[in-house]
Amino acid sequence: MAGWAVAQIEKLKQPGRVVVLALNVLAAASIHFFIFGTIVPTGSGESVWYLAAIAHWIIVLVAAPFFNPPKDALSTAITVAVLLGTIDLSPTGQFQLTLEVARYSFLTYALIVAAGALTAIFFLKSGKWVGEVAYRLTGALGRSDILFTPAVVISAVGFYQSDLVATVVILAFWTAFILVEPFDLIGRVFNYVRSRSELDKAREFSGVVLRIDDPGIVRVRLEGKRSRWKLTNVHLAYLPGGRPKYVLPLFSQTQNEEVLGTGIICDTPTGIEATDTEKGLVFQLPDGDDQPKSADLTKSLSGVDHESRLVGIVVENSTIETIRFQVVRGAQLSEGMVVFANVRGEMVHFQVLDASTAEESFEQNPFGAHIVTASQLGVYDDEKGFLKYPWLPDMNQPIFWQVDKVATQQPDVEGILYLGEVPDTGYRVPIVQDDLRAYHSAILGVTGTGKTEFVFDLLRDAVNRGNKVFVVDFTGEYVQRLADLNPISMGVSAETIEKFEGLLFDVDTGEYRASAEKKELKKFVDEVRPAVNAEVSEFLESEDADKKIAIFELPEISNTKATIQATEMYISTIMNWARSNRCAREILIVLEEAHTIIPEQTFAADKDTQWVVGKIGQIALQGRKYGVGLMLVSQRTALVSKTILSQCNTHFVHSLVDQTSLSYLENVLGKQHIKAIPNLRFLEFIAHGKAIKSERPLIARRVEDPAKREASAALNKPLKQEEAD
Asked: Domains of the chain, with CATH numbers?
């Protein structure tokens, strides 16, 4: 596979040139000795050819590497002018006149070349046209073999008229050693064969280039072992045009009785040229300190300094927001992982949302591949998080996974809460605490996804920052799980709720308009409200460190009109206090099981309930002006009032499966992220909105805390043995 072409054999280096010079001089001296019986020039015209040959070889083999064309031509022309100008042609006999004409003609030619060389030397750098013209002419006309040949011919023909054999030998010698250069050729062939032999011993033939897909993808018909075609093995491909390129294998497939390999073209090696027979061939390079490494080529492709792994190449139907890429064989990817591409010199991040199988037919046989869908996160900024990038990677551009996480480590910042991290990146999810309260938030997800523990962490942080937190809880978990915060209890008694429900029932079943019953209901509410006002005012105005969180619990879990209106009474009282004491406190209202308190209009019991829900909705619309934030927690998004839910500018979405919830969230997160929601695992969530330092939604994951799991399990108290019996 290492055939060679004479025209492309590398020229000898300087030590080899000196050896060739010695051999050439030895050959010329042998002929001179054969004719004259001495190796010393005679000093007459008979030895001009001998001196011309030696001068030619000195200029070509020794001086040429240090000269540019004008200087080379100048030295040659002067040497020829000296030889022709000093030669005595009187002994030449019958050809003297002809030889004299030839001598002066070529002497003039040599002087013209010398003048042109001087012109080129002095005027080339000045930028004048005369210097450029002189440079080109002397390069073509001032070659050593052209200038010395007339002197050799005059010497051989003029001074060896009586010895035809000597004339023929001299002219044949000159022709052979000038045109063929046998010793130079032998040396070059020897070096070539030796270097190719060493290279062939080290490298292994892999296959033949079939086609190149722009930009930078090569398809190879593999003829060696298929196991060699893997990402860790660096290959050298001599492209059809003769350009050598390093290639990293991506994947392979069977086509009829052949195996087709796909690789990505990397750097151009230095000091390597392809011969005619190597064009279109691919070789696997050996391991060694002097050979390129897969990791080095990957780093060069990625354009970043830290360690990365090539995981795929971009395929069709990619957009700025969402790209699709074919996975490299052996790459270990999973939903939520973050990959990146070098787009116009920027490290643009993408998060894996989905994957599918696909078939690619190169000619006939289909090839199975994994096609990944990844949403753009953007360019990472230390202060602002992920920022949108306005363009997408090119077709066939490589996609990488960042191994080194140092680049995404974030320092703790005042006012930023870190809950969870983007999977496999080391990037923690920053939550801007003030924005979380001021712009309202929703924590959504079915039971068993880690949603409640997430809320507990948010509330603890809010309390630590001095917020007043009011929680409406029908689950009974908050009092026990937040016991370390010393929560105070709020709410009406069971007797009050019972009487409240009775009066509401009377209103519903009373006579036309139920005027009397409504008066009784209003009287009862007016009697209860002062106690509620006092309770709320005492909580909000207290500076006691143990009065930062209040939990509103009802004696039963229901969404009856009584429970909803009792909740509204407390929330309205908080809102009225906030209006009167504008922004005196940062207040956070948390509605656990929000669907039972603010149900969607379709699920509201009657107009009175709808009115109450609407009143709570006003808090979502106006609360921000008075320092009141709202946090909704629900496992049944479809049942929550969309009017109020739409006011939440930050969403933390855990796994959901019902289509109504997914359809609503599609308008919030986008179509691609909706596909990922049902697949979210325990403690995984999608974060998006005003309080998140990312302009696009991102999948995040929290680390499980065994202590929290035990605390949650402790709420499920087993029956005592005697009770069980």
From this structure: 6-188 (no CATH), 203-295 (2.40.10), 303-408 (2.40.10), 428-493+544-694 (3.40.50.300)
